[in-house]
């Protein structure tokens, strides 16, 4: 044993970090085999087990190996070996856990304080790792895994002893639970919202506490346990604000999962805890000021990028503006100056305000991208607002924007001058006299040629090249007044802090008279030396003279670092801009990002040459003729269009940066780009409140629309109530309320909802098990129409609407036995004399005794309030009412009693009330103006026609007479020109049910049948171009007569009535009428006989005399 433990002790000693990685046969392998041997030996020998715990320095090397060792593989090997040791089986087959779990756990708990003190490594300190691998360095993840497993494996008798007599037990479970809970509450907020590193200490404490609670210590149901529950809930759902940016405590997926598991254990079998959590969760799933959620919503897709920056939405062709704004925003000096600018009485005030809103959003928002529409509305270029569908040149927009910034406020003018404004000196030096002509020109961007140039230095040589003026091109000296030889040269007199280059990729071809793009290879350096292009180098004599006059400083820096590139991909006529920008905030230096409209992601600067230099690229293509792969070269269309360089700081002999050139020192942002705070600057309260109000809603949405949360709610609504049911029988109603609220208010809105069917089954089971839950559900919707409107009317997903319809039907069927007798009950305040005459009672006084009928009345009222705007979604709405009417006689009578028929007719007709055919005799025909076609599909109203036809038929009494109210009968069978029948036939909605409705109305009423056929005939005459639906209803009516469906003697013979009017229709649309007759002759004996008997009246007219050849051919 001493020899074996000495190997482990030696392996645990600190060594040079460079020796940790020693190839395949490293320390992890040594520890692995040593621990495997130790485990095997201890399983075989009781003496060896005792000797291990009594060996010197056992506690020391065990702590080093499970906690302090910097190599993850070593920690993992030791912890897994200890776990195997504690849960192993001896050679004789005896389980060893009773003898080793408790002592080993007691030993490991001595290191708990050390483990708690360990925090996550800083993001910047962690090198790029393969996914799933831990970084090097001491860590507590494996330690907490081991302790939690051992707690979970404690023997039942030891747990019982610990809870009954904690003083004399090896492990005090309740005391340990209290200690862990206090540690959890006092732990600092170490996880960040973006680029977060898991806090293994926090996750370990949560998992350990979860396993302790599984043993049901008194702490669970104590006041401290309930307070812990509230705090853990806040770990998950506390919303950050400008003053509390660090909340909630759990931000990483692993820590949030651990918190959810802890909440589940805290409420398991504890009714009071469940009620506390139930109340908090229910608040999260009730309609609020920002409800409803969009359909197919998944906010994680719209969250701020992991790199911590926000993009800009492309509104059509605004990529030039997005690229320009991101370059400006990523310059800490410009960003801070714009946000700090005073907008009062400034020029271009609306533009400055919108620019501040945009930058504040990019700085603070938790969303993926900002929509710049409001900025485009106020920004003018060439005296016109920005047209979001028109692409502009980015260089032109950049100069225009910088010029406007310079005019806005004096402070911004100073910053713009320092950052972007340089001076170009154009010099003409006479060779025949001492005179020098010099003009100074300010610039914001330097235009550099690309055509016939290999790189940026060659292009700068072209800008500053010396040109000799002689011969015919001699220069006229302004002072001498005579022709002299001279040298002309441009050079940079003053360089700005940010040097911007516009590569002239666009040229005008004088042969084709078209604008073209130059795609040739053009390189540029990461560090640019401008020393060879300044006045000091090119014209030293004149530079020295100016220096003596202006007392300029001796030290000047001419080196620049590349900080941004805007790439244009496409042609001269159109394309797309995107940018690569270097992050210059402390802690993120030398990191590059791609800004492509709304997308922001890391970029490898080693790829700048491939992405930005242009030129040709070669690919392999297969030549079927030679049966070989050939090299195929083509020009890249993506190349750098604008370059941004920043002056390097002057490094003093001591190695520090000179304050004179470190312009950003006073205006720089905080270390973390997403920490959204500026060192010496705060956003205005108005901007801060505006952004953080949106942030809080969005973060809340991200917390809720998450699969981990959905799984948690599944346990809280489904599994946990079953553990409480034996103690609290009423728990099912509470659970059903939470299930229904979560399901309807949140879950069905999610884009990703794979467990939809399971949730429907769960809610259905809960309603089956609890009648009070059914009553609550219907009462809730009867008093508040939010759910029916949002789901049944507004939801674009048909599957969701059908699910809601079936759920409501199921609930009503569950209540039918106990509530059906109450459907037609009249309010008590109605006099007895009126109660006998049902027709005299107002619908509002009927059906108020049952939640079912109150809900149905609420649904019917939606036809007057909101349903019209969602006509294409109404199939399930009317389908539900129809299914309700089919449940039984009481349901149909109730719908008739509350005037459902005339409500539906009134809803359907709406403004169509005047679009009908007048069949009144003796009056002149009125001109009917056809209404424009509706935008919705009338097919969604099929069930409405079916319901009306069904209710009309069910209204018959024992004498087979219709017992419709005056309003209902008037709605379907009266009115000038039968507007309801006319309109639904014209709209071609469910004509089979329309036929059934006409049969029901006309049974025993031959005069009504005659009037309806007359209306159809006149409709054909008026609408000859769209008469097809009217002929179709005639076919259905005559077919029913031929088949004997109207076998009752009280049913009129529709065939005879139709044939009386057919020639009138034939005068207006002869071809359709004759075609209809030709079809009916073969189907209907009455029609066949009538046509033969009346041949004299139609044969000559239509076969010979008619002017239309198509009609003659049809005959």
Automatic annotation (TrEMBL):
<keyword id="KW-0645">Protease</keyword>
<dbReference type="GO" id="GO:0005634">
    <property type="term" value="C:nucleus"/>
</dbReference>
<protein>
    <recommendedName>
        <fullName>ubiquitinyl hydrolase 1</fullName>
        <ecNumber>3.4.19.12</ecNumber>
    </recommendedName>
</protein>
<comment type="similarity">
    <text>Belongs to the peptidase C19 family.</text>
</comment>
<dbReference type="InterPro" id="IPR001394">
    <property type="entry name" value="Peptidase_C19_UCH"/>
</dbReference>
<dbReference type="InterPro" id="IPR021905">
    <property type="entry name" value="DUF3517"/>
</dbReference>
<keyword id="KW-0833">Ubl conjugation pathway</keyword>
<dbReference type="InterPro" id="IPR038765">
    <property type="entry name" value="Papain-like_cys_pep_sf"/>
</dbReference>
<dbReference type="GO" id="GO:0009966">
    <property type="term" value="P:regulation of signal transduction"/>
</dbReference>
<dbReference type="Pfam" id="PF00443">
    <property type="entry name" value="UCH"/>
</dbReference>
<keyword id="KW-0788">Thiol protease</keyword>
<dbReference type="InterPro" id="IPR028889">
    <property type="entry name" value="USP"/>
</dbReference>
<keyword id="KW-0378">Hydrolase</keyword>
<dbReference type="InterPro" id="IPR016024">
    <property type="entry name" value="ARM-type_fold"/>
</dbReference>
<dbReference type="GO" id="GO:0016579">
    <property type="term" value="P:protein deubiquitination"/>
</dbReference>
<dbReference type="GO" id="GO:0006508">
    <property type="term" value="P:proteolysis"/>
</dbReference>
<dbReference type="Pfam" id="PF12030">
    <property type="entry name" value="DUF3517"/>
</dbReference>
<feature type="domain" description="USP">
    <location>
        <begin position="310"/>
        <end position="648"/>
    </location>
</feature>
<dbReference type="InterPro" id="IPR050164">
    <property type="entry name" value="Peptidase_C19"/>
</dbReference>
<dbReference type="InterPro" id="IPR018200">
    <property type="entry name" value="USP_CS"/>
</dbReference>
<dbReference type="GO" id="GO:0004843">
    <property type="term" value="F:cysteine-type deubiquitinase activity"/>
</dbReference>
<dbReference type="GO" id="GO:0005829">
    <property type="term" value="C:cytosol"/>
</dbReference>
């Amino acid at each position: 044993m001493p020899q074996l433990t000495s190997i482990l002790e030696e392996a645990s000693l600190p060594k040079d970090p460079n020796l940790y990685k020693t190839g395949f046969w490293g320390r992890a392998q040594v520890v692995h085999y040593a621990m495997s041997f130790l485990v095997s030996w201890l399983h075989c020998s009781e003496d060896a087990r005792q000797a291990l715990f009594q060996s010197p320095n056992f506690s020391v090397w065990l702590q080093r190996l499970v906690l302090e060792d910097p190599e993850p593989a070593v920690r993992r090997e030791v912890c897994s070996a200890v776990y195997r040791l504690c849960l192993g089986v001896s050679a004789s087959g005896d389980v060893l856990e009773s003898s080793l779990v408790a002592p080993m756990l007691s030993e490991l708990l001595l290191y708990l304080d050390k483990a708690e003190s360990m925090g996550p490594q800083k993001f910047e300190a962690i090198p790029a790792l393969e996914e799933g691998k831990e970084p090097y360095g001491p860590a507590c993840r494996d330690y907490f895994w081991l302790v939690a497993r051992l707690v979970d494996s404690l023997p039942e008798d030891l747990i019982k002893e610990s809870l009954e007599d904690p003083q004399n037990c090896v492990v005090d479970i309740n005391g340990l639970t209290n200690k862990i809970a206090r540690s959890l509450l006092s732990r600092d907020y170490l996880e960040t919202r973006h680029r977060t590193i898991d806090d293994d200490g926090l996750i370990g404490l949560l998992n350990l506490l979860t396993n302790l609670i599984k043993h049901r210590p008194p702490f669970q149901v104590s006041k401290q346990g309930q307070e812990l529950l509230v705090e853990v809930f806040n770990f998950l759902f506390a919303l950050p604000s400008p003053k509390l940016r660090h909340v909630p405590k759990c931000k990483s997926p692993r820590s949030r999962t651990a918190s959810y598991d802890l909440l589940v254990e805290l409420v398991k079998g504890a009714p009071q805890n469940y009620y506390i959590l139930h109340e908090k969760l229910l608040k999260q799933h009730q309609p609020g000021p920002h409800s409803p959620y969009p359909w197919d919503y998944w906010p994680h897709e719209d969250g701020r990028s992991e790199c911590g920056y926000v993009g800009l939405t492309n509104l059509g062709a605004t990529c030039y503006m997005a690229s320009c704004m991101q370059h400006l925003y990523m310059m800490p000096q410009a960003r801070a100056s714009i946000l700090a600018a005073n907008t009062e009485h400034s020029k271009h005030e609306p533009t400055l305000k919108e620019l501040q809103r945009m930058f504040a959003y990019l700085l603070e928002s938790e969303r993926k991208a900002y929509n710049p529409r409001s900025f485009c509305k106020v920004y003018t270029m060439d005296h016109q607002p920005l047209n979001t569908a028109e692409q502009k040149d980015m260089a032109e927009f950049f100069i225009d924007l910088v010029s406007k910034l310079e005019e806005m406020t004096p402070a911004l003018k100073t910053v713009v001058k320092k950052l972007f404004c340089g001076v170009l000196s154009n010099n003409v030096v006479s060779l025949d006299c001492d005179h020098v002509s010099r003009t100074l020109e300010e610039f914001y961007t330097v235009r550099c040629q690309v055509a016939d140039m290999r790189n940026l230095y060659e292009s700068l040589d072209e800008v500053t090249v010396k040109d000799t003026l002689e011969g015919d091109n001699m220069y006229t000296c302004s002072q001498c007044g005579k022709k002299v030889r001279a040298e002309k040269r441009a050079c940079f007199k003053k360089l700005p802090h940010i040097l911007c280059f516009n590569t002239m990729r666009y040229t005008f071809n004088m042969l084709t008279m078209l604008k073209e793009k130059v795609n040739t290879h053009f390189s540029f350096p990461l560090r640019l030396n401008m020393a060879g292009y300044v006045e000091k180098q090119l014209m030293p004599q004149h530079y020295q003279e100016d220096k003596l006059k202006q007392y300029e400083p001796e030290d000047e820096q001419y080196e620049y670092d590349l900080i941004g590139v805007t790439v244009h991909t496409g042609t001269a006529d159109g394309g797309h801009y995107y940018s690569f920008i270097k992050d210059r905030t402390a802690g993120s230096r030398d990191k590059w990002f791609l800004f492509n409209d709304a997308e922001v992601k890391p970029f490898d600067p080693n790829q700048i040459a491939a992405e930005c230099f242009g030129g040709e690229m070669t690919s392999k293509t297969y030549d079927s003729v030679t049966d070989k792969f050939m090299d195929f070269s083509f020009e890249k269309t993506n190349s750098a269009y604008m370059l941004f360089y920043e002056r390097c700081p002057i490094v003093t002999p001591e190695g520090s940066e000179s304050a004179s050139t470190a312009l950003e020192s006073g205006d720089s942002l905080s270390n973390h780009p997403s920490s959204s705070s500026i060192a010496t600057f705060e956003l205005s309260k108005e901007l801060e409140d505006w952004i953080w109000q949106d942030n809080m809603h969005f973060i809340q949405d991200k917390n809720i629309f998450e699969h981990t949360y959905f799984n948690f709610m599944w346990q809280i609504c489904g599994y946990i109530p079953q553990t409480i049911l034996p103690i609290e029988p009423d728990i099912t109603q509470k659970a059903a309320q939470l299930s229904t609220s979560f399901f309807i208010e949140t879950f069905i809105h999610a884009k990703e909802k794979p467990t939809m069917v399971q949730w429907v089954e769960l809610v259905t089971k809960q309603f089956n098990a609890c009648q009070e839950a059914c009553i609550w559900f219907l009462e809730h919707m009867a008093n508040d129409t939010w759910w029916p409107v949002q789901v049944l009317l507004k939801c674009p997903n048909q599957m969701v609407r059908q699910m809601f319809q079936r759920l409501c039907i199921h609930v009503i069927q569950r209540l039918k036995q106990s509530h059906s007798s109450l459907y037609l009950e009249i309010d008590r305040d109605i006099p007895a004399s009126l109660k006998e005459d049902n027709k005299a009672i107002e619908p509002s006084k009927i059906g108020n005794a049952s939640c079912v009928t109150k809900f149905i009345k609420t649904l019917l009222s939606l036809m007057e309030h909101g349903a019209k705007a969602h006509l294409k979604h109404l199939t399930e709405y009317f389908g539900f009412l129809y299914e309700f009417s089919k449940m039984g006689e009481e349901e149909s009578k109730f719908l008739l009693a509350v005037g459902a028929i005339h409500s539906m007719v009134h809803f359907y007709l709406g403004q169509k009330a005047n679009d009908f055919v007048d069949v009144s005799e003796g009056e002149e025909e009125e001109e009917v103006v056809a209404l424009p076609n509706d935008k919705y599909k009338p097919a969604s109203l099929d069930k409405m026609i079916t319901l009306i036809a069904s209710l009309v038929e069910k209204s018959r009494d024992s004498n087979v007479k219709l017992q419709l109210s005056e309003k209902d009968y008037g709605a379907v069978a009266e009115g000038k020109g039968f507007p309801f029948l006319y309109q639904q036939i014209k709209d071609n909605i469910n004509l089979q049910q329309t036929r059934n409705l006409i049969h029901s109305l006309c049974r025993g009423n031959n005069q009504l049948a005659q009037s309806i056929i007359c209306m159809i005939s006149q409709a054909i005459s008026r609408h000859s171009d769209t008469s097809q639906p009217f002929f179709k209803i005639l076919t259905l009516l005559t077919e029913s007569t031929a088949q004997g469906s109207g076998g009752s003697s009280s049913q009129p013979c529709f065939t005879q009535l139709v044939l009386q009017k057919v020639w009138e229709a034939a005068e207006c649309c002869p071809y359709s009428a004759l075609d209809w007759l030709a079809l009916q002759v073969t189907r209907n004996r009455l029609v066949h006989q009538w046509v033969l008997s009346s041949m004299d009246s139609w044969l000559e007219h239509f076969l010979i005399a008619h002017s239309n050849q198509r009609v003659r051919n049809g005959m």
